[in-house]
Design brief:
- The chain contains six helices and six strands, in the order H-H-E-E-H-E-H-E-H-E-E-H.
- The chain has helices at about 10-40, 45-60, 90-95, 105-115, 135-140, 180-190, and strands at about 60-70, 75-80, 95-100, 115-120, 145-155, 160-170.
- A hairpin with a 5-residue loop joins strand 1 and strand 2.
């Protein structure tokens, strides 16, 4: 004999309520980021807050804020953070990504095109996150990462950097940063931020 599968309206409403609560918290987190942007006068601290709060908002394992060089040919890590609260020394990872080279991908393509992009990167392709980014895989003890790279733009709409949010791609009960709902939500918020 097999158990009878039934759908419960009460269960569905409870799941919907839980989802709504999670979305409300995410909206509050992103509003907090906006408040920090307007209140923080120290640039380094601002980058740190934006990275940490964005990680919290979408439950990411790590985050990297890249800044575009003046000649727009490379991205350098200005902030690297892990979920557990640890900061990785920028010199230990110091991802530098070349922009505009033939076949650029990952965060470089986000800087060049100015569009949000989800992608998966394995240890073998760690160069998509920059030179020396293999240290990030060691710190997170994972084989692959799901990434959500968001262009950071100035008031004129020009790309000045990239925020890359990372999630261990190993299956867990947590939603991944590249999940359809999260990508749509971040895309909508990035459009108004």
């Amino acid at each position: 004999s097999q158990p009878i599968a039934t759908r419960s309206v009460v269960f569905e409403i409870d799941r919907l309520a839980g989802t709504m609560d999670a979305m409300k918290q995410t909206v509050r987190n992103f509003l907090g980021i906006s408040a920090d942007l307007s209140a923080e006068s120290r640039f380094g601290e601002l980058l740190r807050k934006v990275c940490r709060e964005a990680m919290t908002a979408i439950d990411a394992d790590a985050g990297i804020v890249y800044l575009l060089s003046d000649d727009e040919k490379s991205l350098a890590a200005a902030e690297v953070a892990l979920r557990d609260g640890a900061d990785l020394p920028r010199r230990a990872i110091s991802p530098v990504v070349r922009v505009g080279e033939a076949g650029d991908a990952g965060v470089a393509s986000v800087a060049r095109k100015g569009e949000l992009r989800p992608f998966r990167v394995g240890k073998a392709e760690s160069g998509l996150l920059g030179e020396g980014a293999d240290a990030l895989f060691r710190a997170l003890d994972c084989a692959a990462l799901d990434a959500l790279a968001v262009p950071l733009k100035n008031v004129q709409g020009g790309v000045v950097g990239v925020l890359c949010l990372l999630h261990d791609s190993a299956p867990t009960d947590r939603a991944v940063v590249t999940g359809t709902e999260r990508v749509a939500f971040v895309r909508a918020l990035a459009g108004v931020a």
